Batch of 2 targets.
Target 1
Amino acid sequence: MVGSGTTLVECRLLKRRAIGVDINPEAVMVARDRLNFDLGLLDSDFVEPEIRTYVGDARTLDRVPDSSVDLIATHPPYASIVSYSNHRVPGDLSSIRRIDEFVGEMLVFAREAFRVVRPGRHCAILMGDTRRHRHYVPIAARVMMAFLEAGFVLREDITKLQWNMKSTRESWAGKKYDFLLLAHEHLFVFRKLSEAESGSDFKDSNWWGSRG
Ligand SMILES: C[S@@+](CC[C@H](N)C(=O)[O-])C[C@H]1O[C@@H](n2cnc3c(N)ncnc32)[C@H](O)[C@@H]1O
């Protein structure tokens, strides 16, 4: 779910090997284009890291071997809040409006993420919530539970404030509406336990998941 490739650009700057996958061919084209920048001026000793991109479904990472990835950094759609392909690309998770169905597909993705992450390493996922009929729909909490169910343990839940919305928040101030503006997202940092940890006290960390 690499989108326009911000994560890959950071990988290149940090000299990290990376694989970027997106279901939308246009996103992969944009990501490839954004990776095409000159680094020679910044660092004369620069050694190019291997960065691969391909069009594919994050729920079946068939080009990625088991236990081979040190870090997944991903920003999936938040159900259908923003459509990334105007529903034209089959398999695009932003075309799913029903929250139950979306969470079910995120569980499929979480299991695939668990398969490819190396034991002891991390999977970070940015997720937001929405409102329907003026009520809060906790998509992020449900996706977090799906990752626990897939076998991960939660290392951090970092709140990302949408800082550029400050003025909107202030003018909002409950004048016209009887609900608050959503102005944060969750950056969940999960970890796949090492084999040694799986058999230890750590298993209590995953109080929800089937591997707990
Ligand atoms: C929130 S955007 C990612 C934005 C990204 N952080 C960036 O810098 O542009 C979500 C992306 O997930 C992709 N996507 C949706 N369903 C997918 C799936 N099943 N497999 C892979 N990518 C998918 C969409 O095409 C979209 O590019």
Target 2
Amino acid sequence: MILSTHAVVGGAIASLFPSDPILAAVAGFASHFAIDAIPHWDYPLRSISVGKGADNRRLRLNRDVVIDLFCVGVDACAGLALAIWLFATPASALVVSLGSIAAIMPDPLQFMHSIHQREPLMSLQRFHEWIHSDRKVGWRLGVSSQITFAALVSAVAQAFN
Ligand SMILES: [Zn+2]
């Protein structure tokens, strides 16, 4: 799933444990894998390779890499901002942010693995690839389904808050 969806779901889950940052972070991190198992759409990147067999060791900073980093950065920041806006109170803002960032983390860790193939990144990568749905959906359904899914998770979390 795209990072915004992960961030919103992680923030939603964290908002259920506003006084337990460790549980919020662990649950947010775990949520990444749970929702990656759902068939979904991911936006294409120009030069950074992701997923099975990704190898970025030869990646050099160029225009395409900067555009990729910009997209990923906007995606992550928008998700984090949305999660804070939807779920945080002044008292829970830190924990919600933590859950949200923890939910994004497995993807930067995939990138780390693609340039640095060592444990524990290798085991994590194997698990990530194993759980990640192989079924891709078209972008129209992909975008609308992720918005609907994030809204649904938000509504459920709000109901429990
Ligand atoms: Zn992922």
